[in-house]
Write a structure and sequence with these properties.
The chain is mostly helical. It has helices at about 5-10, 15-50, 55-75, 80-90, 95-110. The chain contains five helices and no strands.
Length: about 110
């Protein structure tokens, strides 16, 4: 059966509708991705500018993770990584960050 015969008999009708729905779904996905990319960029800029309480907490968590990792390396490899602790001293902005940094410093002194 030729293409023209199939088209005339309606055999391409459902696939054509399916393709239309697929195109609409792809367009919606592209819009969603663009919207998400814009939101991620805005959140990154907020973080970089240190504009919100959330940004301050995330920055503190970044420093906490660094000194916690340094403490683990010191314990595992018996190296002095004091420069990591010195570089973050006094730079925590939130009470939570300060508390966690103090706890890590206490654990470091005990070892």
């Amino acid at each position: 059966m030729s293409f023209e015969d199939k088209r005339n008999k309606g055999k391409f009708f459902l696939p054509d509708i399916g393709a239309s729905f697929l195109i609409i779904e792809l367009f919606d996905l592209i819009v969603d991705v663009a919207t998400a990319a814009k939101e991620i960029n805005e959140l990154w800029m907020e973080y970089e500018a240190n504009l919100s309480p959330e940004a301050k907490v995330v920055k503190d968590f970044d420093k906490v993770e660094m000194i916690l990792q340094a403490l683990e390396y010191e314990n595992e490899q018996r190296k002095d990584l004091d420069e990591f602790f010195v570089s973050t001293a006094g730079k925590f902005q939130t009470e939570l960050g300060k508390a966690w940094a103090s706890e890590i410093a206490l654990r470091r002194k005990r070892q």
